[in-house]
Amino acid sequence: MKLAVKNLANNPKYEDYSLRYAPPSFRRWSPRMIVSSCLVALSAMAGYALDAAFVGEFGFTNAAVGFAVAAAVTLPLTVVIAFAIARNHIDIDLLTRACGYGYLGSTITSLVYATYTVIFLAYEGAIMAQAVTAVAHIPLAWTYLIVSLVMIPLTLYGMSFTAKFQARTWPVWIILIGIAIVGAATSPHAATHMTDPFGVHGGDFGGVSLVAVTTIAAANLSLATQVGEQGDYLRLMRDPRPATMRSWRAAVAFSGPGMSLFAIVIFLASSLLVGFAASAGVPAAELLNPVSLFTAVYQRVFGNHAVALAFSATLIILSQLKINIMNTYSGSLSWSNFFSRLLHRHPGRATWVFFQVALALALMEWGVFSHIVTILGWYANIGIAWIGTLVADLVINKKWLKLSPPVIEFHRAHLYNLNPVGFGSLVIASTVSMIAYFDAFGHTAKELSPFIALAIALVLPPVLAWLTNGRWYLARTSVLPDDPQLTCVACGDQFDRHDMAACPHHKGIVCSLCCSTESKCHDGCKDHPWHPTSLAAPVWLPAPRLRQPEPADR
């Protein structure tokens, strides 16, 4: 059994270097294939349901401005993280370790990230279940189980299957969504109802409310965390060559930060569809259900309810399969990181696919579809604080002020367990914002709580890095041979040099995964795993240049 688990964990078909640096030999996909896999968020039906809810409650103008504000805030944040992941070929969990959290400190962000993927896997799964129930008339509780189980075989094979599935299904999806949008756009009443589908705002383009805009923008700030999901694919980008640098940058930009802008496009498209459905007499309560929304549009195109329902179900099921492959895959990576640090065990990424699906099924049965806006409003306070601390360390600490080492160090062997710079900033930022969220500082502060979290998360890391003199970033370094491939003395496999560290416990060189799962060494390679034992300058700072004595007078 132990050998079977080891073979599962070391199988590239399943693992995709889930807890490691992704070596050049594995990064065989073209930038076009990476973009194809990253942009599946465009297909998510959650956008259409959430956009309708925002327009219905706050009006079209407030919703549009709120989305624009959220995009303006998240775009520069996700640019920094996406390019850091693509250049260093590690996922956002490993990036977090290097950006002021330490080896165990980043465990909390793994949990934050895993929670995000579970929430949206459940929400998108609930929408897919509604489509299956509408066509097959199976009780919703059973379709929740069906749509959960189908994700397991689709995600077990990782990027090897994902890239092919996403690329081959895009043409079908584009045709289906194109028919729907054209059908709605050619309706004479869609534009009129687009700005006020529920008939409660008077179709007024004015009357922008600061409270409404900040509420919508705050909820959408949680979507900045999605750059982690795109990063799970961006880490597999090939290294750019001088001749391909421009296209490489464009691929990274569209794959990660581009989603902030695409969210506005989705909002406009969904508002148009909702406006048409409202003009066609679809009840207000049904406008939040993508099945009813698209069935109404297709019925205008084809003139037959059965055909319209079949097209609607096909589009929704295909859309949700595409996005939930990403949600399941990213969740399995994050749970792998989380439990490998806590348990010093790694049964393989595929094992955590089952765990991710089980959690999502529990949320679906609980009724996540009805509570998603509240959940996102709460989650945004923590998610945006995490993203803010990463950006602050990558830009302010590493580049501008040189308060942290320029290298992205993710090895357990080289890190302290806890770095107060990032971890402390996250705890303080999220705590203050959550207190504000629960109305302790007044209604305005409650609506602005994610922005409060972001502001603290951007300011505090350089302050704490300066106060600690950056001593908690690196515990030590390793001197390794110059060979591009080195053999791990613990597992006997060969890995890229970037993945290795010197290990006094094993009396040789070990890979990052064997280092993470080793429970008997007690971090003996470091003077102290929790804090520096010397007040000397950090190991990443160059030694001070001694003043040369002046020549003696003759």
Write up what this structure looks like.
With 554 residues, this protein is an all-alpha fold. It folds into 2 domains: 2-239 and 246-356, Hydantoin permease, CATH 1.10.4160.10; 480-532, no CATH class. Helix content is 63%, strand content 3%. The strands form 2 sheets. Strands 1-2 form a two-stranded antiparallel ribbon. A two-stranded antiparallel sheet has the order 3-4. A hairpin with a 4-residue loop joins strand 3 (500-503) and strand 4 (508-511). Mean pLDDT is 88; it is low at 1-7 and 545-549.
In a nutshell, what does this entry contain?
The chain is mainly alpha-helical and 554 residues long. It is built from 23 helices and 4 strands.
Q: Could you outline the blueprint of secondary structure elements for this entry?
A:
Layout: H1 2-9, H2 12-15, H3 31-38, H4 46-58, H5 60-88, H6 92-101, H7 107-136, H8 140-149, H9 151-155, H10 158-185, H11 190-194, H12 210-221, H13 227-234, H14 245-255, H15 258-279, H16 290-302, H17 305-343, H18 349-366, H19 372-400, H20 420-437, H21 443-447, H22 449-468, E1 485-487, E2 494-496, E3 500-503, E4 508-511, H23 512-517
Antiparallel strand pairs: 1-2, 3-4
Helix pairs in contact: 3-10, 3-13, 3-14, 4-5, 4-15, 5-12, 5-13, 5-14, 5-15, 5-19, 6-19, 6-20, 7-8, 7-17, 7-18, 7-19, 8-18, 10-15, 10-16, 10-17, 12-19, 13-17, 15-16, 16-17, 17-18, 19-20, 19-22, 20-22
